[in-house]
Every structure is written in C-alpha cells, then in structure tokens.
C-alpha cells in the first residue's frame, strides 16, 4: 500500500485523492447530466397486478459494452446507462437488467489506470504497491465514489422511467468492511429493494481479495418472485435449486465472461440451471474490452425447452456475442406454471438427507487432496 | 485422483503394451512427473453400446447380437462396456412374449406375476450370459438395467460385473418421472460408488440424469466416471440430452458414459444418441463430447479413451468444487426439499 500511496502522493496526496474522488462523484453531477434528458415515465409497470403474480412480464437484457470511463466520469457513465435504459423502456420493458461488472467502467476514476494495467491488473497493483496491496484494496479506495455514482445513476433512472432495474454489479466495500461483487435491485420509485452479493467467486476474484456473499435473495415483486444471483453462481445447480425451492419463478443472471466466446462453454451457466429447476431466466452479458480483458457473451431470455418455440431453451437471444445490444422479450409465467404442473419435480428427499449438505466439505477436501 | 483407483494401459519405448491393472494410474503419474519412468500413460478405454430393441427377435438371436456388440467393443480395446437401460427387460419380453409386458399401469404387476415362474430364472440366465462375456473378454460390463420386483412395485436396477465374472454391485434408479411411477416403479434411496482399477464408478439411471443432485452426490463421494444407462421415448431431442448428462459432466468435472436404448420395447418407441463425455476443455471443438453414436435411431458401438491426466489438469486449472458456498448450502439443505412445493 505504501508504494501505491507514494505514487499517488506524487501528484496528489492520498487524502487529496480521496477528496478528488468524492468531488468527482457528487450526485449533483449525475442529476444534472440526466436532468436535460427526455425521460417519460413508462406506464408498463402499471399494467402489472398490485398483488399476485402477473401472467407475463416484459424484460430487457442489456448487453453492455464495458470500457473505462476516462474523463468526466459521473456524467459520461450516467449518460451511457440512460441511453441503454431508454432503449429498453421504449420497447415496453418492465424490468431492465444490466450485466455483472456494470460498475467497473468507473474504475477510470484512477488516473492512468489503463496504462498501469496494460500488463494485467494484478501485476500493475503489485508493481505500484510493492506487493502489499491486493486488487480488492484498489477497489476499496474507489468504493465510496463508485457507490455514489452507481446508486444515484440507477436510482434516478428507475424513478424517472418508472421501471424495475437490476443494475448488474460493482466491486464495493460491503457493510461489514469486506470487499464484494454486489448487485442492486431498484424498484420504479428508485428505491433499493435488495442487494445481492455474488455467492460463488472466480478463483481470480478470491486471489484479488474479494469475499463471497452468504445470502441468496428471493424477492416478491409485482413482476413475480425473483432471484438475481451473479454470473458464476449459475455454474452451481445449488443456487437455482435454492431459489426455486424458495419459490422463485424468475432467476436473473448478470454475467461478465472474460474469455473467448466458445458456444459449449457458454452452455455451462444459466441454460442448464433454468432447465433443471424449471424457472424462467434472464442473462445480461458484458461485452467489449476493459483494461485489456475481453468480455463476450450472448444475452437472452430463457425457459424450459418445452416452452420455447424452437425447443432450444431460448425465447430470444442477442444477435452477437461482442456488440452492444438491448434484448427485449416476454416471460410467460402462466405458461411456466402450467408446465410445472404437467412436469412436476419428484425429489428424493431421503437420499438428500443422507448426503446434503454434509458431503460438500468432505468431497471438496478429497478432491483437493487427490488432484 | 484416488491412489488406488485408476489404471490403464502403458506403452514402453519399444512399443510393448501392458495392462496396468496392478498399478494405479496415480502411481504411474507420480513416477512420470518425477521422471522415474518414461512410459506414457494412456487411457482407460470405455465402450458405449447403443442397442436397437426389436419387437420380434428370438432370444437366441438377441443374445448373439449382444455378443457381437460386446466383441466389437473389445476389439477396440474397451475395458468397460456399458449397455443401455432395459436391456434385460428386452430379453425378458422376447423370451416370454405371452406375458404381454408393456410400460404403463400393470407393468409392475405383470413382472411380479411372472417372476416366480420364469422371470427370475430368465434374469439369472441373462446375468450369467454377461458374466460369461466379462470373463471371456476380461472386461467390466454394465448390462444395462433390469426391472425386478420389490414391495408392491419394481425397481430399475443396474449391475456392475467384473472381468472375473462376478457382480461387484448394483444400483437402483433413485428418481422417477410420472410415467415410471405410473408403471409401478419404486425408487432406491442410496447411491453407491464402486472403486475399480479403471476409476471410481457411479450410476445415474434414466431420470436420475436429469436431477443434478445425483451426479453431485456421486462426485462428492469420489466418483470419476458416471455410467448412465438411459431409455428416453422418441422423439429424440439434442437439447434434452444436453440438460441431462452433458451438463452433469461439466458441472462436476468427471467422465460420463451415456448408453441409450433405441427401437421398440414394451409398447414404447425409444430414441437416443449415446455419448461418452468429458469436460469441454478436454474435447475436440470444445463440445464436451469424446465420442458419440452416429444417429439417434440405430444400433451403434463406439469407444473412447478417458485421459485422467488431462482431467487432473482441467481441475487444477479451475476446480469447481473449490468455490462451493458451503455455508449457503447448510442454511437451506436438506430442509427446503422437505418443504417442496413452496407455498
């Protein structure tokens, strides 16, 4: 940390730098940026029943191109999110979903980050800090500023457009001081109705010093009963099983896959999870290139094979895995309930009672020891 | 990898091939990595039989066909041969057509009715036949599944036969769909993992392949190869297959052998495309498929090598199990299952 501080202090002391971040993240910047925009409140949410689940809902999955915001951070970021939200709302979306890492472009608040990170974020941090700082500590420094811009932007847009928004996620300091990958759910009043911490991390995130969350949120909303875990959480059937068993009908996955697009590898996430737990799914992918890291993925709306027209599990999907797109479609909850009634899951509770959850730690250790 | 679980074939510099049944692959791997041996460790070779069930065929011809299929597999070097679900039931229906055994209400009762007189002896005959094949070819054989009486119904049970021609163990299907329940099937309540020199084997039978809990439990118990004797009514759906065994293999980082029944049996027409699976990272074109039947409606035999060294490398690059959120699972399992369906 010392070396990093020294580096920053050369231009501005750490104290001043924090002050700079605070100044750059003033909510008034976001509000001013959005004040002149055309934001007609949508009436789409008003069509949803006040109580009970709707027959169907219209959802937009935003395939957002990530890139560092280098100047005028709060204004440019707010305008980007505005443009994408507007496109979704104009197509009648009642819920707009952004991808994982949607807050990471704000890392551009660190001057010269792109140059520093040309050899990889991990090694850049090591280089400037002498190895004492983890990547998570850099995000910790940014956290108050990112949080202000991020929350103000999404809250303002949700309220102004009168639409539900799942923000994707940002690396933020959590209430307990741990650094986590956190997603937000905003209601059409602009209030935060829940935060979801990523539950299963990439090994890289663990190495960088981030912590997994402990709770899976399942929310009753006018859209239906929704869970919104993050990216890697969809690699584990347990996430969706818990969500379904707690009554979720829709599971939303904001994702950011930092690898080359390979069709079959992309099939290891939300697609099988939707099938095995009989829920409707939304995946919103990050694309583009962020500090040398490529992101790929095809956003889409998913459901059990039997409910999709081409019987491939997709209601609709982005045309590309690399371009910015807003994918809009309907999720039919009535059809889902009928499908579940005709194809009930028959669990073997006696079998699970013997092994779950007791076997997880044993199996985990056994594999670590033998591979 | 388990220290005593694996073996395969080794090939020396001068081309001599030896079966390493007395020496585990893990031991060889350690020696190989330490430079103490120059032997290349090859593969555990497994065979998948896609059986075409016919409405009319003499029991003798049926067994002859099975013999041919097994021999075909052993010519390709198979050390483990897997037949599809209901292979034994197919033999029973051919041997006793007058019993009129059809899937649906009355099936379990029908099997129970004929069991004392000729069902049991027919089944023993069938098992003895496979034990003979296993001995002859010195291979492990899974002769698909058999419907055997239990309580008021029948269980769909698979058998693992050793190269010595003995039954190592059995596994009952643990999850049933509505049609199977309607036919009087009763599910088993446990999952076994069998340690063999080829690797640790576990079974996911028919509907079990579509419940991720099954392969997760098997893998947590140490299974490295999942054997899936399958029979799915037509029409064949590639995506239905992907949401079954394919995804189980990916999310548990193990090998899978899915052997499908095709053709007519018990009043139902079956289709399926048998497949030998590995993780995407280990397969050509990243497909997760090592080998696959040519079509979903015809008989086929094919083999593939299971490379445990590559599997180890894949897991070391990213061990899915290392990121389990055990506190989360402890909070909700197993009581949530008891409360299903949610209110």
What does this protein look like?
The complex is a heterodimer of chains A (371) and B (343). Chain A contains 14 helices and 14 strands. Chain A is of the alpha/beta class and 371 residues long. Chain A has one domain (2-370): 4-Layer Sandwich (Nitrilase/N-carbamoyl-D-aminoacid amidohydrolase), CATH 3.60.110.10. The two termini of chain A are 35 Å apart. The model of chain A has no long low-confidence stretch (mean pLDDT 93). Chain B is α/β, with parallel strands linked by helices and 343 residues long. Helices cover 34% and strands 26% of the residues of chain B. Chain B has helices spanning 25-33, 59-75, 87-95, 107-137, 178-182, 212-220, 238-252, 308-317, 326-332, 335-338; strands at residues 9-11, 17-19, 40-41, 44-53, 80-82, 140-142, 145-150, 153-161, 167-172, 193-196, 199-203, 225-230, 255-265, 268-270, 275-277, 289-292, 300-306. Chain B starts with 8 loop residues before the first strand and ends in a 5-residue tail after the last helix. At the A-B interface, helix 9, helix 10, helix 11, helix 13 and helix 14 of A face helix 6, helix 7, helix 8, helix 9 and helix 10 of B.
Give the count of helical stretches of chain A: 14
Average the pLDDT over all residues of chain A and give the rounded result. Answer: 93
Q: How many domains would you count in the coordinates of chain B?
A: 2
**Strand count, sense and closure of the main sheet of chain A?**
14 strands, mixed
Give the name of the CATH superfamily of the largest domain in chain B. Carbon-nitrogen hydrolase
**Sheet having the most strands of chain B:** 11 strands, mixed
Q: What is the CA-based Rg of chain B, rounded?
A: 20 Å
Strand content of chain B: 25-35%
Strand tally of chain A is: 14
CATH 2nd-level architecture of the largest domain in chain B: 4-Layer Sandwich
Gyration radius of chain A (Cα, Å) is 21 Å
| Fraction of residues in H or I helices of chain A | 25-40%
């Amino acid at each position: 940390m010392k070396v990093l501080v020294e580096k920053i202090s050369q231009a501005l002391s750490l104290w001043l730098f924090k002050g700079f971040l605070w100044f750059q993240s003033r909510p008034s910047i976001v509000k001013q940026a959005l004040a002149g925009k055309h934001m007609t409140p949508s009436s789409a949410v008003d069509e949803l029943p006040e109580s009970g689940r709707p027959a169907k809902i219209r959802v937009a999955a935003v395939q957002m191109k990530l890139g560092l915001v280098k100047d005028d951070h709060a204004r440019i970021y707010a305008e980007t999110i505005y443009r994408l939200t507007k496109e979704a709302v104009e197509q009648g979306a009642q819920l707009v979903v952004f991808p994982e890492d949607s807050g990471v472009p704000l890392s551009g608040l660190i001057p010269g980050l792109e140059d520093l990170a040309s050899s990889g974020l991990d090694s850049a941090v090591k280089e400037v800090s002498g190895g004492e700082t983890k990547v998570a500590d850099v995000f910790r420094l940014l956290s108050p500023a990112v949080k202000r811009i991020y929350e103000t932007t999404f809250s303002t847009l949700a309220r102004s457009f009168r639409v539900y928004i799942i923000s994707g996620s940002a690396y933020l300091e959590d209430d307990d001081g741990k650094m986590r990958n956190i997603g937000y759910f905003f209601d059409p009043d602009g209030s935060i109705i829940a935060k979801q911490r990523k539950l299963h991390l990439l090994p890289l995130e663990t190495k960088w010093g981030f912590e997994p969350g402990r709770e899976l949120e399942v929310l009753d909303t006018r859209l239906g009963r929704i869970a919104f875990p993050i990216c890697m959480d969809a690699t584990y059937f347990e996430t969706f099983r818990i969500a379904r068993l707690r009554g979720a009908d829709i599971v939303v996955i904001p994702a950011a896959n930092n690898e080359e697009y390979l069709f079959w590898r992309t099939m290891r996430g939300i697609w099988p999870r939707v099938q095995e737990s009989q829920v409707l799914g939304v995946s919103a992918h990050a694309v583009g290139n962020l500090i040398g890291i490529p992101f790929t993925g095809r956003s889409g709306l998913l459901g059990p094979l039997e409910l999709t027209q081409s019987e491939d599990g997709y209601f609709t999907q982005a045309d590309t895995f690399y371009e910015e797109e807003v994918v809009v479609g309907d999720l039919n909850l009535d059809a889902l309930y009928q499908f579940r009634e005709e194809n009930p899951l028959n669990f073997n509770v006696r079998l699970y009672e013997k092994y779950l959850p007791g076997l997880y730690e044993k199996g985990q250790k056994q594999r670590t020891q033998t591979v | 990898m388990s220290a005593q679980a694996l073996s395969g074939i080794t090939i020396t510099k001068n081309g001599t091939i030896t079966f390493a049944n007395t020496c585990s692959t893990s031991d060889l791997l350690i020696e190989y990595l330490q430079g103490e041996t120059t032997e290349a460790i090859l593969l555990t070779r497994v065979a998948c039989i896609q059986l075409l069930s016919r409405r009319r065929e003499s029991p003798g011809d049926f067994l002859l066909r099975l013999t041919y299929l097994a021999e075909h597999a052993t010519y390709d070097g198979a050390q483990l041969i897997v037949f599809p679900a209901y292979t034994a039931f197919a033999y029973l229906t051919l041997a006793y057509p007058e019993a009129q055994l059809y899937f649906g209400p009355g099936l379990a009762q029908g099997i129970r009715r004929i069991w004392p007189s000729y069902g049991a002896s027919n089944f023993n005959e069938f098992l003895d036949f496979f034990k003979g094949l296993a001995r002859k070819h010195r291979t492990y054989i899974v002769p698909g599944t058999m419907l055997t009486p239990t309580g008021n119904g029948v269980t769909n049970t698979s058998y693992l036969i050793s190269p010595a021609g003995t039954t190592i163990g059995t596994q009952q299907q643990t999850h049933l769909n509505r049609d199977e329940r309607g036919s009087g099937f009763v599910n088993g309540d446990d999952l076994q993992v069998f340690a063999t020199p080829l690797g640790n084997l576990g079974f996911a039978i028919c509907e079990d392949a579509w419940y991720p809990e099954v392969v997760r439990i098997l893998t947590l118990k140490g299974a490295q190869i999942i054997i899936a004797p399958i029979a799915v009514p037509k029409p064949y759906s590639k995506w239905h297959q992907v949401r079954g065994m394919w995804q189980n293999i990916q999310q548990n980082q193990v090998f899978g052998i899915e052997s499908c029944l095709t053709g007519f049996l018990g009043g139902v027409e079956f289709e399926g495309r048998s497949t030998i699976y590995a993780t995407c990272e280990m397969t050509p074109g990243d497909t997760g498929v090592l080998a696959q039947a040519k079509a979903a409606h015809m008989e086929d035999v094919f083999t593939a090598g299971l490379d445990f060294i590559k599997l180890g490398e894949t897991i070391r690059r990213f061990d899915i199990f290392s990121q389990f959120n055990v506190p989360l699972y402890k909070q909700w399992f197993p009581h949530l299952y008891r409360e299903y369906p949610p209110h």
